[in-house]
Amino acid sequence: MKDDLNISGIGIDLVEVDRIKRLINKYPKFLNKFFTKNEIEYCNGKKNRAIHFAGKFAAKEAIIKSIGFGNNAIKLKEIEINNMSNTNNNSIPKVILHGSAISLANKRDIEEILISITHTKEYAIAIAYTRGKA
Question: Where is the 4'-phosphopantetheinyl transferase domain (predicted)?
């Protein structure tokens, strides 16, 4: 984490896991519309994939709120939640922006986006905060 940056935005989102499960089952194109190939591979490798898709969906929405993109400024697929393992074998989510999300974040002088995701059987919640020199 860079020490010379200020918090420039905070976002939070809550997603019902069953809602995501219904969307996956009802709409075959749902996953490819909102998630990257890496995200789909990661979640499909989990025992209860809907929980992990819900967590990533909540994180994407929280990021949009923290940056102030607005509802239709970017596609959710342009925000990737990549899971990196740390030394304790825990998964740490890392944000990777693609396409127009990069230029919009640059316009807002965003240099870092940090997120935390947690979930139960019923809900996934994510919080995001952005840091920049503003």
Answer: 9-127
Distances in whole angstroms, Cα of residue 3 to Cα of each of 8, 61, 67: 14, 26, 19
Sorting pLDDT into bands at 50, 70 and 90, what band is 88?
Answer: low
- What's the pLDDT tens digit per position in 59-78? 999 999 998 866 677 889 99
Round to whole Å and give the CA distance between 97 and 62: 14
Domains and CATH numbers, the chain: 6-132 (3.90.470.20)
What sign does the dihedral 68-69-75-77 (CA atoms) show?
negative
Contact between residue 74 and residue 99 where contact means Cβ atoms under 8 Å apart: yes
Amino acid at 115: I
Say what the pTM is: 0.90
Give the helix ranges, DSSP H, for the chain. Answer: 17-26, 30-34, 37-44, 49-67, 100-107
